[in-house]
Amino acid sequence: YRKGRRNEYRTMRLLETSGYFCIRTAGSHSPVDVVAFGLHDVVLVQCKSNEWPSPADMETIRELPAPANARKLVHRWNDRASLPLVKEV
């Protein structure tokens, strides 16, 4: 749990430095962990540690209703990595 929370905050800091306002969806059991609002788009991020989501989880994220200007991303944080691997869903 702690590693996942730490990586969610790392994702938030990364997005905030790019000008986004971020909200963590802790405890909501949502398919996304972080919602980031920018001037021109919304970013929905699922954070994972050392592995990609399962195909079923990827499909859930893909089918999630979202505005036309929303991007759906997965941030995979590998141990000791300074930046995540990013996959657009």
SSE string: HEEEHEE
Q: Using only CA atoms, what is the Rg?
A: 12 Å
Structural class: alpha+beta
Largest sheet, in brief, is:
5 strands, mixed
Mean pLDDT value: 94
Percent of residues in β-strands: 25-35%
**Unreliable spans:** none
Task: Give the count of helical stretches.
Answer: 2
N-to-C span? 24 Å
**How many strands?**
5
Describe the structure.
The protein is α+β, with helices and mostly antiparallel strands and 89 residues long. The chain contains 2 helices and 5 strands. It has helices at residues 2-17, 55-63; strands at 21-24, 34-37, 42-49, 70-77, 85-88. It has a 5-stranded mixed β-sheet, covered by helices on one side. Strand 2 and strand 3 (42-49) form a beta hairpin. The longest helix has 16 residues, at 2-17. The radius of gyration is 12 Å and the shape is globular. The mean pLDDT is 94.
Give the key terms.
89 residues, alpha+beta, 5-stranded mixed sheet, 2 helices, 5 strands
How is this fold's topology laid out?
Layout: H1 2-17, E1 21-24, E2 34-37, E3 42-49, H2 55-63, E4 70-77, E5 85-88
Parallel strand pairs: 3-4
Antiparallel strand pairs: 1-2, 2-3, 4-5
In short, what is this structure?
The chain is α+β, with helices and mostly antiparallel strands.
